[in-house]
Amino acid sequence: MRSISKEVNLKGKKILLRLDLNVPLDNGKINDTSRIDKILPTLNFLINQKTKIIILSHVGRPKGKIVKELSLKPISEDLKKKINVGIRLIEENINEIKNKDFFNKFDEKILILENIRFYPEEEKNDQNFAEHLASLGDIYVNEAFSCSHRSHASIDQISKFLPSFSGLQLDLEVRALNKITTEISKPITCIIGGSKISTKINIIKNLITKFDNIVIVGAMANNFIEYFGNKIGKSIKENQSKPIIEEILFLSQNESCNLIFPEDVIVAKNFNDLPVVKELKNISSEDMILDIGPNTIKNIYKVIDDSNTILWNGPAGYFENPNFANGSIEIAKKIIERNVANKIYSVVGGGDTVSLINSLDAVNNFNFVSTAGGAFLEYLEGKKLPGITALNSHD
Length: 395
Known about the structure:
The protein has 14 helices and 17 strands. It has helices spanning 34-38, 40-48, 73-82, 120-123, 127-134, 168-178, 201-208, 220-227, 242-254, 294-305, 326-340, 351-359, 374-380, 386-392; strands spanning 14-19, 25-26, 29-30, 52-56, 87-90, 110-113, 139-143, 164-166, 188-192, 213-216, 258-260, 264-268, 276-279, 288-292, 309-313, 345-349, 368-370. A hairpin with a 2-residue loop joins strand 2 (25-26) and strand 3. The radius of gyration is 23 Å and the shape is elongated.
């Protein structure tokens, strides 16, 4: 995979830059600009290299139709405020732009083509559409790791027709993920939560072969608590999870991977009730498990202290209510403490976990925080991502 950061001869080139600017919009207002903020270093790098940047991106799921509410206009305006260069949204039909000279008539350094998903050929990974896109630039750069698990024309097929490179942010993402999948500094621990084991089974199976410890928390831990003969009351659980649990236990024993489960929990009668600490044997039929207990937190402290690398995906409890956020907050604080002392390399991913860290204003206290969602999880499962494969196959 060739990085655009290593290229020296970019002056005057038209760069087709695939970004993920799929930010949450509410009546044309952006609710969260973090995806825009993350790509600013790449834009500044390309501006300093005196290139002309042509951005390809999408918002939402217009399903190949023009949806006015999903225009990139608000994003274009937000970028204008953040970067001191001219930016123009090009609203012409992409299929009617016949060659890259079209862009010479604009003085702006950054041009944004309207929502790429307005075109049905994009999600169909249409080769002719990809070739046409490629004809509009000199170089292609993928700076959309979070879309790289999609076989779409502007992610996959396009790299067949242009010199293709990874962007600065994509490099950081892949480097961080390699540190927890292939270039590992052991001992390595995964703290994994979420509501369903079935959605994380392939991640757990893939990581068991590489990790020393896997700590299972959140609602998925309820299935294990029940499997080992304890009541879980009214707690969230997944039906028919027994075969999955047995597979995980068998694999972990075979691979000498230490599985850690809660040994005490925080319960309540409902989501708004006061928290009560209980040992597993004391959980009643009226209880809901909503967080991990103090002894479990101490056990997780010890595992973190003994680790050189840590991956965290999924909160420890119902963190949206402060009464049940303590387990997640304590995990975050312990990882931060080890990070500050340069004793650990930490990678965090998953929407809820990132939300928690944002609420603590602690994003910069971890080595890498991934907002890539599905692509992040598929990489952890060991799947080949089409966008990364495309870049690697054209080195």
